[in-house]
Design goal:
Elements lengths: L3 E4 L9 H14 L7 H7 L4 H8 L5 H21 L11 H10 L3 E5 L4 H11 L5 E5 L11 H10 L6 E5 L2 H9 L3 E5 L6 H6 L4 E3 L5 H9 L1
Parallel strand pairs: 1-2, 1-4, 2-3, 4-5, 5-6
Helix pairs in contact: 1-4, 3-4
Pfam families: HAD_2
GO molecular function: phosphoglycolate phosphatase activity
Protein name: Phosphoglycolate phosphatase
Length: about 220
């Protein structure tokens, strides 16, 4: 039975805050919507885009959530390609810890509210795709905190829930782990605060990427 470590992407592996927050502000402005605070945007990161729009615009119809989602995607692509925005940086220690976990015999995966295209771009930009045996995105699953991404990752990796841990920066990641159910490790460098992570079920909250191997070992050996 393989021991599986699943990572979220945005806010956990890569620091995408500037890109995501800026694109959301641009999208709301173009749609003539009220100005959001950065904190309001950070609060919904981790959800699939349509569900994020639904959370930000609870009184709007589903069709408008979908329209806003497509506008966000177009703006994100424009910023990334037309404005030649560079890649979002990996957090310090990411490469070393991925290599260390692989060397210790863990199999790794990703479960993200991002799209397949978005995740593949990140993996290619940083040449880290070879570390992961299973990749789950919002394109093929319900939004977090539904556990579908974790369940599929477990099946693809040949693991089991009690041999799996989910690592992420949002309460949605921790609730998804709890719903699976599997272990959950929060990280404090992303979008949600430590108290939100522990309140959602995190067994541990890492303050550095280098804390992760010890926390993983404590949960699944």
């Amino acid at each position: 039975m393989n021991k599986l470590v699943i990572f979220d992407c945005d806010g956990t592996l890569v620091d995408s805050q500037h890109m995501i927050v800026g694109t959301m502000h641009e999208t709301f402005e173009e749609l003539g919507l009220p100005v959001l605070t950065d904190a309001e945007v950070r609060a919904i990161v981790g959800l699939s885009l349509v569900e994020a729009m639904a959370a930000l615009l609870p009184e709007a119809e589903r069709a408008f959530h979908e329209l806003a989602t497509e506008k966000y995607k177009a703006n994100f692509y424009k910023r990334r390609v037309e404005q030649a925005a560079g890649p979002d940086p990996l957090y310090p220690g990411t490469l070393e810890v991925l290599e260390s976990l692989n060397a210790d015999g863990y199999v790794l995966g990703v479960a993200t509210g991002n799209s397949v295209r978005g995740l593949e771009r990140v993996l290619k930009e940083h040449s880290i795709g070879h570390h992961f045996v299973t990749l789950q995105t919002a394109d093929g699953h319900p939004s977090k905190p539904h556990p579908s991404m974790i369940h599929t990752a477990i099946a693809e990796a040949g693991s089991h829930a009690d041999q799996t841990v989910m690592i992420g920066d949002t309460s949605f990641d921790m609730m998804m782990a709890r719903n699976a159910p599997c272990g959950g490790i929060g990280v404090d460098w992303g979008y949600h605060h430590t108290d939100e992570l522990t309140g959602a079920g995190a067994a541990h909250v890492a303050t550095s990427f280098y804390d992760i191997p010890k926390a993983v070992k404590a949960l699944i050996g």
